[in-house]
Amino acid sequence: MANKAKKAAPVTSRDDLEQHIAEFLKSGGKVQKIPSGVSGQTSTSGPRQIVLSHKTSS
Question: I want to staple 29 with a disulfide (CB 3.0 to 4.6 A). Which of 7, 23, 24, 51 is the partner?
Answer without folding.
Answer: 24
